[in-house]
Design a protein that fits this description.
Blueprint (H helix, E strand, L loop, with lengths): L3 H5 L7 H15 L7 H15 L1 H10 L10 H19 L7 H36 L11 H34 L12 E4 L2 E4 L8
Antiparallel strand pairs: 1-2
Length: 210
């Protein structure tokens, strides 16, 4: 069975631009309206769908298998995160005097902030790589490989995959936060001190909005 790379006729280190170019060329010749076959056209589209998606390409490169489309399991992952937070909170907080929901949401808010900061950092690095790429002027012969450009484009592809994965994590924790926000926790306010993620304080806990 041909790999997606072989189907499109591109190298394993091919950039998104090279993949798109190869796809358009192959699609033009295999399209049924152009005299090609529906089967060949389907294979071209399937290969393109794998290689142009950072997550699917990373999965194929790592396992050698094409990741099959599956129902969106983001909500299931969010529920797992909620479960982890609740169990952890009940283990580390006083269930009578601490606002468990607020403590969990505060942890979610911290994670959301960290994920957003990571995306900003990676995007900044991506822009720097693009600038580096523009500054390297290839002066070799036409049939000589442009190694430096290929190296930089490979790094850019890796940052795109990182961003896609982080955005998916961000989507998951946002759903988890939404689930938690549908609840209040009936804690006892008779104690002078209550506990939130920031430590003990007098009165009830407050939630930091993100």
């Amino acid at each position: 069975m041909k790999s997606p790379y072989d189907t499109l006729g591109v190298d394993i280190e091919a950039t998104d631009k090279e993949i798109k170019k190869a796809y358009h060329k192959q699609a033009h010749t295999t399209h049924p309206d152009k005299g090609g076959s529906a089967k060949a056209f389907h294979k071209i589209n399937q290969a393109y769908a794998v290689l142009i998606c950072p997550e699917k390409r990373e999965h194929y490169d790592r396992t050698g298998e094409i990741k099959q489309e599956a129902p969106d399991n983001t909500t299931a992952l969010a529920l797992e995160r909620v479960s982890e937070l609740i169990i952890n909170a009940l283990s580390h907080h006083n269930h009578k005097y601490d606002d468990i929901i607020t403590a969990c949401i505060n942890q979610i808010n911290t994670q959301i902030l960290e994920l957003r900061q990571h995306i900003q950092k990676v995007n900044k690095n991506k822009k720097i790589l693009a600038e580096y790429k523009s500054r390297f002027k290839f002066k070799g012969k036409k049939d000589t490989p442009n190694y430096i450009t290929e190296i930089i484009e490979n790094h850019i592809n890796n940052t795109n995959r990182d961003i896609a994965i982080t955005k998916q994590k961000l989507k998951t924790v946002k759903i988890a936060k939404g689930i938690l926000e549908n609840y209040d926790y009936d804690f006892d306010t008779n104690s002078f001190f209550t506990f939130s993620s920031g430590g003990y304080s007098s009165g009830s806990s407050t939630t930091t909005a993100i």
